[in-house]
Each structure stands twice: as C-alpha cells, then as structure tokens.
C-alpha cells in the first residue's frame, strides 16, 4: 500500500470515531472501501470516511437489508457523487502486491438467521506472505457452506464473525485454523458479545485470542514474514 493509503473494511457506527481513527493513522486515500453488509454498526460511520479523504472504489454486499441503513449509505454516496458496486465470490483484486479474494457470497442464504449477516462479504487477504480472513457477521449456515465449498487455506489471522457471538460453527473455526483470532466488540455491550463459548472454541483450535473490549486498539504488524500483535488502550 502506498503512503497514507489503506483499504477499509467496514466503518463502524459513528462518523466521528472512524474519522478520528483514520486521521490518527494519517490515512488520506482509500483505494477500496468495502461494506460487508448494511447493519448500522458496520455502515453508520460512512459519512466520516469522506472528511478530507478520497475514496476511489466502494464495494458492498448484494443484499440491501435493512432498508433504512441501505438508504443511508445510498444517500451518503449520492451526496458525495459516489457509487457502489456489489462484490461476490470469486472476485479478486490486487493493490500494490496485496491480494484480496472474495470467498462469499456465492449465493444468498435466506431465512436461516439474519439475512443481512449471512449476506456479508467475506474476504481473504494475502499480504507479506500472511493470510488474513475477514468474516463480516456470517452465521453458522454460511460458515458451514464455506467449509463445504472452499478449500482450507490455514489463515494466520481471522476476524471472528459477528463480534464473537455464540452462533459459531466449530467446523469453520477448525477450517480457518488461525494462529490469531481477533474479536471486534464494544465494551459492556448489550448483546453479551463475545460469548465465552466462542472464546473457548477459538482457543481450543489453537488461536491466540485478542478482543477490543479488553485489549483496546489492535494492530497486526508483519515484518520478515513474522506476525506481531500490538495493542493500545
């Protein structure tokens, strides 16, 4: 990635928070912005991304659900004279040697949990010889479909699906086989995330678990093909 550039996957729920984060990281250019799905905690901060920054390309889930937040995204993009295009399996793109591969959705699985969650775009990222899996909020029906249809990759890092909710597939955790599992979750949230059984599941697969409610900001640093996890509260 070039100086002051970043590919951004989801934007949180608060425009001021994402603007502050990107400012602290000195990010001025976003070649690709991916919104995995349209729940407010993943797209609500969108307007803050465009403050003093350029966004070249915007990719989204194929399912415009829930309608209210989907319309919010559409309105922000209209106001900025931007447009978005859908991302689905097996699309790939590469930016400055970093490879992004869409593993899901290859179809829509409806009526088995949250339709919006299960339409999340799932991305495998290969950077500096390290494989990273970004899972959106996919639930067990999709997790199990990925296990059934995609060959194992043995990821070094996984972003645990749906903020570490209790709805996880043990087969999916074993399929990912990640050294490091990251849980993006708000402190003292009303959903009880992350579930203790989900933390145990990933620890039992051999993952070292880091969670934002306890560890604060988390950065994965790759040097000489070795991974270091940096945290900051």
TrEMBL record:
Signal peptide: none annotated. Residues 3-141 form the Metallo-beta-lactamase domain. InterPro entries: ComA-like_MBL, Competence_DNA_uptake, Metallo-B-lactamas, RibonucZ/Hydroxyglut_hydro. This is Unannotated protein.
């Amino acid at each position: 990635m070039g100086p002051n550039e970043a590919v951004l996957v989801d934007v949180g729920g608060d425009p001021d928070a994402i603007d502050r984060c990107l400012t602290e990281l000195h990010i001025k250019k976003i070649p690709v912005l991916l919104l995995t799905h349209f729940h407010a905690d993943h797209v609500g901060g969108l307007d803050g991304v465009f403050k003093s920054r350029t966004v070249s390309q915007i990719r989204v889930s194929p399912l415009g659900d829930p309608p209210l937040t989907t319309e919010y995204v559409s309105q922000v993009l209209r106001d900025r004279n931007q447009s978005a295009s859908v991302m689905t399996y097996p699309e790939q793109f590469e930016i400055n040697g970093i490879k992004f591969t869409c593993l899901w959705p290859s179809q829509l699985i409806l009526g088995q949990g949250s339709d919006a969650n299960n339409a999340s775009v799932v991305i495998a990222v290969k950077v500096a010889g390290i494989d990273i899996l970004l899972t959106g909020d996919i639930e067990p029906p999709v997790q199990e479909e990925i296990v059934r249809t995609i060959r194992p990759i043995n990821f070094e890092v996984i972003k645990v699906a749906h903020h570490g909710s209790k709805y996880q597939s043990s087969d999916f955790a074993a399929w990912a086989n990640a050294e490091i599992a990251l849980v993006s979750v708000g402190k003292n949230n009303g959903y009880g995330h992350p579930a203790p059984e989900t933390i145990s599941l990933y620890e039992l697969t051999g993952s070292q678990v880091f969670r934002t409610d306890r560890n604060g900001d988390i950065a994965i640093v790759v040097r000489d093909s070795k991974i270091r996890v940096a945290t900051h509260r």
